[in-house]
TrEMBL record:
It comes from Halorubrum kocurii JCM 14978. This is TRAP-type transport system periplasmic protein 1. Residues 31-52 are annotated as: Disordered. Signal peptide: none annotated. It comes from the Archaea. CDD domains: PBP2_TtGluBP.
Length: 335
């Protein structure tokens, strides 16, 4: 059982339901995959030129999916490996896919990686640490966007009491972050608002249609779904107070202060203060160290081929905020 107070504050019943929807309730049966061969053994799942690398991303309206598409191009241009990128429910689902061997690489948040590897905070992980989860590199801040319906008259997180709030896909990292922030900085539990759960694109549609009062979107700005929404609808993003940001940081050390610059989205004419977590690439311990090294080298030696988050993704910052141990192949490259 974790000593982390967040473990007790998160609505466990809600998160377990979300984890089940994301298909990770079976993690307990496969979380010790890493003990079968060590970091240098591909376990028969990959490592030979021509084998397809299975890369799990996130929803098509976020940053994970298009960035993973760019990684696919870089890897295929600079190695012998074809890559298959899949749209998923993002962090929590992706951890499950790595744990059971359905994915070779995946995009996840650094906080979710920590929870999974240490078996805490979410019921999907509590007492069932994902032993084979390994880090490759951290990438960029994943900014917490709290999108608001202009008619909702919301100026603080506590104002969301009694309102319809989309906290992200069930079991996703977005949902975890939303519930953390609503409780720590807004004093709200899931009994205090009408929680709804969809991916980024559907959440944007709900805001446009007036079906929710607020929606949490976590992703590196600019997030495609928000950009698209802002072209047709007035967009408001909650400007978190200093006290709210401090409360979020005090309750969860993985949050950091962040700012969405004015002009990032149509209609956002002033900087918006918020918090963020860190996006990262993860893999599984039994996947070939040679392949992981080759993939890591291909990405970080060819950053000029990327067009997304290029101000943040660098060799020098690739271990900032790394919350779990590195895969042997990644360690070879960075060392």
């Amino acid at each position: 059982m974790s000593d982390n107070p967040i473990s007790e504050r998160i609505d466990r019943r809600t998160l377990l339901r979300g984890a089940a929807a994301a298909g990770v309730v079976g993690i307990a049966g496969c979380s010790d995959n890493g003990g079968d061969g060590g970091d240098g053994d591909d376990g028969g799942d990959g490592g030979d030129g021509g084998d397809v690398i299975r890369w799990h991303a996130g929803g098509t309206g976020g940053t994970y999916f298009p960035l993973s598409g760019e990684f696919e191009g870089v890897i295929e241009d600079n190695t012998d490996f074809p890559v298959e990128v899949s749209s998923t429910g993002a962090s929590v689902e992706n951890v499950g896919s790595l744990g059971n061997g359905d994915a070779d690489f995946a995009m996840i948040q650094n906080d979710i990686a920590y929870f999974a590897r240490n078996g805490e905070a979410l019921d999907a992980f509590e007492g069932s640490a994902v032993e084979n989860l390994r880090g490759v590199a951290t990438l960029y801040p994943e900014t917490i966007h709290v999108l608001l319906n202009p008619d909702a008259d919301v100026s603080s997180l506590s104002d969301l009491e009694g309102m319809r709030v989309n906290t992200g896909d069930l079991g996703s990292g977005t949902q975890v972050n939303a519930l953390q922030i609503l409780e720590s900085a807004g004093g709200l539990t899931t009994d205090d608002f009408d929680e709804q759960n969809t991916d980024f694109t559907q959440a944007a549609n709900q805001l446009r249609d007036g079906d929710v009062d607020a929606a949490f979107v976590v992703g590196g700005w600019p997030v495609g779904a928000i950009e698209e929404l802002a072209t047709t609808t007035d967009v408001q993003i909650l400007n978190m107070s200093g006290e709210e940001r401090q409360a979020a940081r005090d309750d969860a050390s993985w949050f950091a202060d962040d700012t969405i610059p004015a002009g990032t989205y149509d209609g956002i004419d002033e900087d918006v203060d918020t918090v963020s977590v860190q996006a990262m690439i993860a893999t599984r311990s039994e996947f070939s160290a040679d392949t992981v090294e080759a993939v890591t080298e291909a990405i970080f030696e060819n950053l000029g081929q990327l067009s997304i988050k290029t101000d943040f993704i660098t060799v020098d910052s690739a271990q900032d905020g790394m919350s779990i141990e590195l895969h042997e192949g990644a360690a070879r490259y960075f060392e």
